Amino acid sequence: MLSVRLERLNDLDEWRGKARRLLVAGMKPSQVVWRVGLEESGLFEAGDDMLPDTDGPIGSVPRQFIDLAGDVIQHSDPQRFAVLYRLLWRLQDDKHILANAADSDNSLLTRMASGVHRDAHKMKAFVRFRTVEHEGDERYIAWFEPEHFTLEATVPFFTRRFAGMHWGIITPYASAFWDKENLRFGPGGNKKDIPAEGAVEDDWRTYYGAIFNPARLKVAMMKSEMPVKYWRNLPEADRIAPLIRNARQMEEEMIARATTQPPARHMRQKAREVDEKVQQIQSLANAADAIDSCRRCPLYEQATQAVFGEGPKEAQIMFVGEQPGDQEDLQGRPFVGPAGQVFDEAIKNAGIDRRRLYVTNAVKHFKFIPRGKRRIHQKPNAGEIQACRFWLNLEREFVKPRIVVALGATAAQSLVGKAVSISSMRGKPIDLEDGSVLYITNHPSYLLRIPDPETKAREREKFEADLALIHAHIQRLEKS
Prior knowledge:
The protein is α/β, with parallel strands linked by helices. It has 19 helices and 14 strands. One of its GO terms (biological process) is DNA repair.
């Protein structure tokens, strides 16, 4: 048995270097044991000094595997190195393993990657800096206990967000320090080394109290998204219990303060004014210009701007989402926020080129409720969907896509004209009156909201399977 030793817990380049040498030596996965740092080798394990050196690439693997390995290498499961090498060994003979969601190695690594993504998200959400004095200069320090070895890969997020601060993040296995210009890493530390209280503690408590919405309180969901194990490091955690106790009273006060909607006749007059302005629309560009004056429903009053579709004016395929999100509303472009990133990755995995797609939304303005400094997404109602069908129908008329994909129930309702069940309709091509074919699947934001990693991975596979089916349809059209 060969003992392969790694110096670092989560260094992909180090693991790849060792894996290349193992491939050159023809070492089967069953002949290899992976050790890290000072971990003791077994009595009958030989060292890896006998492995041949190699400078160039050995064999080939899909880029998808490298991306997957970059995530998995951060997982805390000690078997991650062995499973990665086993899959790498198998990929030398079968390059299609990664497309097989039922493969045990592929499935296991996908779940590990999902766990790492979730851990990185929790670090971004739950790191809380505390102030410390250093030679008369104010600096910031934070303690965090990740489940996996995600600090190195996640910390660039903090260098971008807090670029003008001196700060450090301490975890049990490693630490990161930023001096406004340079990022350096050091050994791990202990929570007792972090100040128990800082000047920004009250700010966090005030912020949490401001964004707390008693009308949408679901304790089980809250504990899923903000696990109790993180509470001991969150200054705002001491506000949670009293806010929950007083939620009913707070909700009644919110209802009493609620604003009224404009009279129906006022909205009808606004719609007539817009109709007069859009009568001269003769092209997709005209429609994109005219939508800024849309007053067909009240959503325009709160949104930053209308978000029109984007893509080639003669695209063969049109993807229709629900509505713009926070980032889309600010940038004025569809699918550029977190859900858009999931969408981009999924269509790339399915072999679909986004540059050839027209992407838009069923509703063109962002519907939300303010919660402190945040804007929380709200689902459009039937009236708002119906009002915006005018613009979606214009896009379909001018683009003339051969395939239309409804992402989520709102988009499906807008395109079909009634509420439909995604689970019963997905994967089934539906002929529309204009001659195009409709496919229905989940919205990518649905994947972001699933807390359980296994469920999220399973739903992601179903989503990408839908996209693969659509890609196959595209290819058939191109050959016809």
